[in-house]
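2024-03-11 09:14:02 DEBUG pipeline.ingest accepted 1 chain
2024-03-11 09:14:02 DEBUG pipeline.ingest length=138
2024-03-11 09:14:03 DEBUG pipeline.predict start
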Amino acid sequence: MLGAAPVAFFSFFFLIALIFAAFGFALFVWTVRLFRARGRARWRPGGPPKKFVPEGPYCHAHNPMITGVLFVMIAEAIFLNSRGLVLWAALFFAINTAYFILGEEGGLERRFGETYRRYQDNVPRWFHGYRPGATMRR
């Protein structure tokens, strides 16, 4: 599957890439809008929310915004038949995981206290799974 030429239009892999790209882009836009509206923050690296946002896709993963970006990156890798883009997506995932664990989570725990600790216990860091209490509200 991963070779030198892009996939043919309307082939199976093209349609899979299109689905991944549409899902990833929609998830990214949804989370940015929710972050700005409910968290009262401008989206940018280092721009933390003023309010905790355990709503929408944030009920199913700590990092749905980055998950959306990963889906788009995987779509690009599929569409372009690029091993390099697959490796870049894996590296992007690893770097973000390290950043969230080593940097961001401690700050969120300090800022939001017990609410964030309960959130960590009930909602997976990545990939939208369901755990009891995942629909917790403030």
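2024-03-11 09:14:41 DEBUG pipeline.report The helical segments are 12-39, 64-80, 83-112, 114-122.
2024-03-11 09:14:41 DEBUG pipeline.predict end
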